[in-house]
Records
---
Amino acid sequence: MDTIVAISTAKGNSGIGIIRMSGEESFDIIKKIFKPRSKEVNIKPNTINYGHIADRDEIIDEVLVSFFKSPKSFTTENMCEINSHGGIIIMDKILKLCLKNGARIAEPGEFTKRAFLNGRIDLSQAEAIIDIINAKTEKEAKASIKQLSGYLSNRLHEIKKNIMDVLVDIEASIDYPEYDIENVTNNKILEVMKEVEKQLKLLRSTFNNGKIIKDGIKIAIIGKPNAGKSSLLNAILKEDRAIVTEYEGTTRDTIEEFIQIDGIPIKIIDTAGIRDTENYVEKIGINKSKEAANEADLIIVIIDSSKELSNEDKEILRSMNDKKSLILLNKTDLEAKVEEKDIENIIKEKKILKISALNMEGIEKIYSEISNMYKFNEIEIDDSLTITNNRHKDAIENMISNVEKVEKAIESKMPIDIVTINITDILSEMGKITGESVSEDIINEIFKKFCLGK
Ligand code: GDP
């Protein structure tokens, strides 16, 4: 494969930056551009060498270069990593020099893709790397590191081994029909399938928590204009020192903010910005809030308790009947015109909290209520494996349904060929997780999600 190069650290000014190169010619290229202090490049695998990157006589930067010799490298190819200073200009110059000397720029995720294609890691481990890089919380990072370490791959390997044994037995019963081993085989297949089913169901059951760990909870704050939505959001963001990231929401009119509660990512869909849009009152208003509410797992309804309940408040409250929601009586620093019982007259069995967004009072209560609602404290990444990836969950479900087909086929005494087909279907679903039987399109789709240089 050709030799690829990319800047692997984030672009921006930083202490150091890493330019990574992988492929057959990496060492030849580095020899042309690296001037070690020891005069001559001595490529000893797994060593770090001090020197300069130079374009003939022009010194570009003082660097450290590490060499990894095939097959003992991340991609299994010859690799070098140039640790330069972290300035954009310098790193770009080094990158261009590598390109000039025969490397080509790597596509996003191409290093990891090579690690996968060369058999160094399986697809679930490659996906774990994206998840580690993008992890928003410690719990998510922990689950992903387990996956990268091969927890999922090993579990699947064990299951595969048992299934392969069954296939060998079936083969034998076909090859030696004179021995009446069919019954024995059938019993053994059933026994193995029951165990496989149990294991797979256990894996599937971890996804409930896995999904929360990865995607967290989506919350929408809704309420009539001036109820205090923006003030609440500000209070939450000020209180929470661990804001992870902030980016434009999927819709033009909403912003999404991230916070963490007990290590679980919470995405807050902020509809407060909506009113800045023209025609808010007539056109967007309540509709937008409803849209946000539909998207959310949990809705926080905020009521201005210093004013009598308006029709708009009542309508919003009534629309919460079949939704998971939390009701806040805001502005408790002012004289109260609305009490809990007024809310209970409209909607029952909702948790109601009193807060003052302006004075940042009651914010902690909101956090602990959310944590209780979803039992965040019980979601721990311990020694067990947690499935966090939708694609893996789907494949596991398909595997389970194929296992059930095998069991049914045996119980209804179907011909052994049918049983064999269903068994091989289990393996091919498993291959979608490990990457052994997955289409190129899906592989490309997965690696597209990577950042440059990874
Ligand atoms: P939004 O339209 O729902 O986003 O409401 P804002 O957050 O912009 O708040 C509307 C007005 O109510 C602003 O003047 C806030 O300062 C005020 N406000 C918000 N929360 C409180 C509170 O807890 N107490 C008091 N006294 N005023 C508040």
---
Amino acid sequence: MAKVFLRAGKERSALRRHPWLFEDAVGRLEGRARPGDTVEVLAHGGKPLGRAAWSPEARIRARVWSFDPAETIDDAFFKRRVALAVARRQAMPELAEQEGLRLIHAESDGLPGVIADRYGETVVVQLNSAGAEKWRGAIVTALVRATGCARVYERSDSESRAQEGLAPITGWVHGEPPDGPVVVGENGLRLAVDFAGGHKTGFYLDQRDNRRLLRELAAGQRVLNCFCYTGGFSLQALAGGAEHVLSIDSSGPALEQARANLILNPALPAERAEWLQADVFEALREFRAAGRAFGLIVLDPPKFAPSAAHAEQAARAYLDINLLAYRLLVPGGLLMTYSCSGGMGTERFQKIVANAALDAGRDARILRRLQAAADHPIGLAYPEGEYLKGLLVLAD
Ligand code: SAH
């Protein structure tokens, strides 16, 4: 096994058990290592710190599998870690009963670069790092064993994978394709998941709890759901008794899926739903000009700041849509606003939402802080795991 020595003064992060070793922290490599190979990580002075996956092309030069320098990284290691991640979810009743569930949340479940989402009998796996790629077989086998699921689809076509110098890979890696569309239940509704063509692994499981909260707030409201994707929030608002739900997305296929999801739930009042294919920034300006108003607005935009480097540009975009939303909100209206950008911190986001209120001339207060559901844990040693943050704001 090759040895990687950290640079003097650059060991702090690893000593705090953060799993990423950046290129500027990595000093000498003793021996040879190919992408994904396991390397021994040592402090500058030679003290063993753990074992990591080597990724020579990425800025994150290595991702630590284990901070136990004696732990062997082999098939059994993945069997243990995958089983542990699955067992953690089974131990929580609110998660154990979900048909749509994140089983492995990468770094925060001790498996850097590995995402696995379960949709009924189908597991969708995403391998985002050289190390995860190397252990594909062991990870898939362990997932099948731990879940008993019939099939596993690989959806390894993310941006972060490209940064590791890995080509995209998609397709079935275990079992036979299902006969028809994969449909999962969520908070009493049914939603089809396009794991092959949709975003991420097909669905935004992270918003499950927040969609339930919206349902509780929606009774009698005129709701505006911006960036609706396949209609998760929209359908919950209808189920909660909203008077009208207007949903906007720029993606035609997402809206098509949203309409299909509404049909999958015949108990919902379809006549109260309106879908609009548009750019949210433009549509909100037009609504303002037309004097439209809403009692409850959801803003769940895509990642404006994939990394800290995009933070400035992203901040302007967040300020813009939040300002536009306040201007469409009736007095006493609710704004449910999110950022899923890793490069946008919680405090910064709150400041932007506050500045938008100020610019709109609205007095407002936070009723709740919102985050991803519990199947998307945040490793305490890995604050980057807190990518999704939201606020429920009541504006006078
Ligand atoms: N709230 C959704 C997830 C939103 S993902 C859920 O709970 O499932 C972000 C969505 O924003 C995507 O569907 C994408 O198509 C859409 N989008 C991105 N930029 C947009 C823009 N400028 N205007 C409208 N929609 C946009």
